[in-house]
Amino acid sequence: MAMNLHGKNFTVTGAASGIGRATAILLAELGAAGVAISDVNEVGLKETEEICLKFGTKITARKLDVSDADAVSSWIADTVSEFGKLDGAANVAGIAGGDGTTTVQTIVQRDWDRMMGVNLNGVMYCMRSQLEHIAKPGGSIVNVASTAGIHGLPKSAAYSASKHGVIGLTRSAAGEFGRAGVRINSVLPGPIDTRIFREGEEKGLFDAKVMGGATQLGRMGRAEEVANVIAFLLSDSSSYVTGARWTVDGGYTA
Ligand SMILES: NC(=O)c1ccc[n+]([C@@H]2O[C@H](COP(=O)([O-])OP(=O)(O)OC[C@H]3O[C@@H](n4cnc5c(N)ncnc54)[C@H](O)[C@@H]3O)[C@@H](O)[C@H]2O)c1
Hints:
By secondary structure, this protein is an alpha/beta fold.
């Protein structure tokens, strides 16, 4: 069955750049009725909005920090009133690194709290609101974790811990909502050539050559290659997939 998103409405966080932007564009390209995009970066968000509008999809764009629970809940409620219903959500927004050093012994409290606030609380706030409104049956939520959610990442312990948390949240929620016909999955990207990776590389946290070279395919991935899997998981084509940890890592963890 070809992926068909006609008549469906989605939300996408982290849509100003990288995987979130590629996901929003693909959902629009695949014929989604509406896509509500959000990000802290308004300039990037506007660019994504303009690209998506070319496909004739209804787009709403909002500046939103996912670590702000009230802002997330009004965004989801407003989206449902604007679109009439919510069929799926891609919770993509995330950060890596920090202002200070990031080892377990030296990480400063502010960096730890920010990492958990965005990467873990952010996904929880999104799901809490989305699950209230999402189509039952038929809804689908995809949370972007990381391969660092199933292995440790020295010098990025907070990041790895937050992504382990995203997987735990996802699998627990999948168990809570499976009987209601809502599927909830996580996607675990490996090394993907986006801003977060390049900024981490500048800080000495990741190395494109080393990590790309350590995959079975011998290269970094592209944001669009992750978006393809997210769109599949949001579509009815993945109707028997829930609670999964879907790696998109060129075989990095294999
Ligand atoms: N690139 C990789 O190698 C890689 C690997 C594994 C997982 N991931 C995950 O993929 C997701 C997307 O990252 P990307 O690679 O596309 O990087 P990216 O930096 O291109 O995109 C991340 C987006 O999230 C937004 N964002 C950051 N903090 C936010 C907040 N508080 N509220 C709302 N939006 C916020 C940023 O403005 C940005 O637009 C992240 O969750 C990241 O952890 C990326």
